[in-house]
Write a structure and sequence with these properties.
The chain is mainly β. Helices cover about 10% and strands about 55% of the residues. The strands form two sheets. It has an 18-stranded antiparallel barrel. It has a two-stranded antiparallel sheet with strand order 6-7. Strand 8 and strand 9 form a beta hairpin.
């Protein structure tokens, strides 16, 4: 699909003007440019004595191209470049070319079978920050481009009820080659909005991983490469008068298998993990003072470890990132007690966690382009079953304090700055190889949409 889209663009450049106009009918471009600067201490190991300091500035650009192939068939291509950091010198055109990637390349067919919008090709899926599934660009250290699904997505939408089905491949093998680590994703989601103030959804997703042994047996080699991982869940949202209440519950099913050198199954565990999340808040207009928003959030995910690893909660591909530091560097801490299969890992596994947060943001009436946000987060393990053994029984991972300032220059241009402090808790202090110190960070970001 990617090659098809790129070839179409190349042909369009060579065809006569009249033919181009028809081939690229209603051609439109859009995109975004981000410049992200980060300076931080003690992110990797929470130890000042190792002089763990980072300071980088990186750019990420997306260019989207949309046009109509036919009246009822629409094409989309997304190009991305995000490899360069400040101070690394100029790039020649060969380097630039080799670092431009086609993140999305799909065709959308209107009303297939008379009712179903069908999208075929490489595409993003889900919403940023989702606890269960999100394939797309991520706000992490290094401006990771994210993942995409080579998939078929089908959407049917009625007046109050809709259905989405997806079947795709996140990681595949070459044509004719025995499967080794192939990851397939399937999902079905029903969403409804019976009244204006109430909406909700029910969903089930499956992620299968195939690893062929010497005898051709298929099985997973680890929990995160589950043979058959299922996530079923419910979500609901109530919103009225500037206030909202959101909740969700997710449950794991399926079987985790491991294979030996002969390709025979050696172990099999059933996934029994679960997670729940609740978010509430209210936005009020204080007239002369400005707009004030207060919010609170809680998330708990079942814990496991060791032989009972399948008791932990495992998503399809989570993007839940609470806190400026915890969410941005979620796997760069060396401490195993803090590692959640992610404390920067782009494949976040929010297992064995209790996360509480609260905050407020205000947009002053006299400076209505400025938003000031304060937030507090506390991180604990759901069970005391963590590694290393010296930390077991200690659930408190730490607190984080964040301050963010955002200036909305215009609808499409914004500038932000942030300060964050992560104070390690007992579980990290007792597991450290040396003196454990707080992690600190300051960051700034320029975002331009076009």
């Amino acid at each position: 699909m990617k090659k098809f889209m790129v070839t179409t663009l190349a042909l369009a450049m060579l065809l006569p003007v009249g033919a181009q106009a028809e081939l690229l009918k209603n051609f439109k471009t859009s995109g975004s440019l981000e410049v992200d600067a980060v300076s931080a201490n003690n992110i990797t190991d929470l130890r000042t004595d190792t002089y763990d300091k980072i300071g980088t500035v990186q750019t990420r650009i997306f260019v989207n191209m949309d046009w109509d192939l036919l009246d009822d068939v629409h094409s989309h291509v997304t190009l991305r470049k995000n490899d360069r950091t400040y101070g690394t010198g100029a790039q020649n055109l060969n380097t630039v070319e080799s670092n431009i990637f086609v993140d999305q390349a799909y065709a959308k067919i209107d009303k297939l079978f008379g009712a179903i919008d069908t999208t075929v090709g490489r595409q993003h899926y889900g919403e940023p920050g989702d606890l269960v599934i999100y394939y797309g660009p991520r706000k992490v250290y290094g401006l990771f481009a994210g993942n995409a699904l080579d998939s078929v997505r089908m959407d049917w939408n009625g007046e109050k009820v809709g259905v989405t089905a997806v079947s795709g491949v996140n990681s595949g093998t070459a044509l004719g080659v025995k499967d080794s680590g192939s990851i397939n994703v399937y999902g079905l989601e029903v969403h409804a909005k019976p009244i204006d103030v109430l909406s909700g959804s029910a969903y089930v997703y499956e992620r299968t991983t195939v690893n062929s042994g010497s005898r051709g047996n298929a099985g997973a080699v680890s929990v995160t490469g589950a043979r058959n991982l299922w996530v079923a869940g419910l979500r609901a949202q109530l919103a009225a008068g500037g206030a909202w209440l959101k909740g969700e519950y997710d449950q794991n099913f399926g079987e985790n298998r491991a294979v030996n050198a002969d390709g025979n199954y050696t172990t099999a565990e059933n996934f029994t993990g679960w997670a729940a999340k609740l978010n509430t808040g209210i936005k009020v207009d204080l007239r002369r003072l400005g707009a004030l928003t207060g919010w609170a959030e809680g998330m708990v995910a079942s814990g496991g470890g060791g032989a009972g690893a399948s008791r932990g909660f495992y998503p399809i591909l989570s993007d839940y990132r609470p806190g400026l530091i915890y969410g941005r560097f979620d796997n760069n801490f060396a401490s195993a007690a803090l590692n959640r299969g992610g404390f920067g890992n782009v494949d976040v596994v929010p297992s064995n966690r209790v996360i509480l947060g609260a905050g407020a943001k205000i947009t002053p009436a006299v400076l209505n382009k400025l938003t000031v946000a304060l937030s507090f987060w506390q991180f604990r393990t759901q069970s005391g079953n963590v590694t290393p053994a010296s930390a077991r029984g200690n659930k408190f991972l730490g607190n984080e304090y964040d301050l963010e300032l955002t200036w909305a220059h215009s609808e499409n241009v914004s500038v932000s700055a942030g300060l964050a402090d992560f104070q390690p808790g007992r579980a990290l202090i007792v597991s450290g190889a040396g003196a454990i110190n707080p992690a600190t960070m300051c960051t700034s970001n320029v975002s331009i949409k076009f």
